């Protein structure tokens, strides 16, 4: 949902709201479906120049805001998620869907054998450690560009997720997931340990920097959703283990 709410359907202020009401009523009675709502982040409203149309646009936006407020009354089963724009919706939706598909609660996810967890120390790196990571990895280094020229290319804004292929000698259990390439965030989600190999320049180091940068930003902003969404990780205790080194 963006800045428009829709037109009255006869039963609700819009067909979308009517579908939501039906889904909510069904969930309260039967426990399904699970409801998730994706709102586009709106920093600046696109208002028509015609005064009458501008007023209509404002009325639509008021309805969207009222609907967002209504979502806050449903901590469960409604989950409200925001995405940066049309181009970013695919990544946000895909990451969220992958987390749901690979959640241990899903009946098709293979059960892992219980292992003894290592004791967790209360010691953690100081804030300066994460600040150094954020400073060093925030800007993408591009080999071959004149070092005397200044280029500020934020890694998090231009990073493109890698596509990976299983090794020919990979365990048979991988066949239950995919027979072709998968994105590397999905691999992070599904497997507790990974060995990533590739030709020089294929993106191995950049990917590791991206992981470190997202974790550092989550720590510095006290916002765990950054790493959870960008790296497709599940919050503890829903995930049995994390990839080695994370």
């Amino acid at each position: 949902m963006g800045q428009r709410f829709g037109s009255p359907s006869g039963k609700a202020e819009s067909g979308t709201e009517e579908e939501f009401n039906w889904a909510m009523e069904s969930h309260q009675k039967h426990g399904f479906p699970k409801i998730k709502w994706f709102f586009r982040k709106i920093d600046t409203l696109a208002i028509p120049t015609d005064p009458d149309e501008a007023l209509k646009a404002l009325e639509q936006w008021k309805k969207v805001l009222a609907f967002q407020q209504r979502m806050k009354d449903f901590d469960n089963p409604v989950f409200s998620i925001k995405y940066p724009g049309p181009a970013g919706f695919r990544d946000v939706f895909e990451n969220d869907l992958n987390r749901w598909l690979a959640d241990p609660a899903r009946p098709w996810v293979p059960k892992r054998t219980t292992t003894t967890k290592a004791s967790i120390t209360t010691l953690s790196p100081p804030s300066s450690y994460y600040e150094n990571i954020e400073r060093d990895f925030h800007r993408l280094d591009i080999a071959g560009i004149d070092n005397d020229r200044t280029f500020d290319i934020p890694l998090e804004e231009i990073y493109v997720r890698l596509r990976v292929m299983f090794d020919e000698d990979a365990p048979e259990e991988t066949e239950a997931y995919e027979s072709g390439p998968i994105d590397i965030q999905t691999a992070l989600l599904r497997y507790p340990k990974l060995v990533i190999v590739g030709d020089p320049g294929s993106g191995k180091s950049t990917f590791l920097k991206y992981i470190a940068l997202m974790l550092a930003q989550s720590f510095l902003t006290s916002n765990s959703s950054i790493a959870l969404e960008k790296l497709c990780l599940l919050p503890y205790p829903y995930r049995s283990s994390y990839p080695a080194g994370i």
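Confidence is low (pLDDT under 50) at residues 236-246. The chain is about 40% helix and 5% strand.
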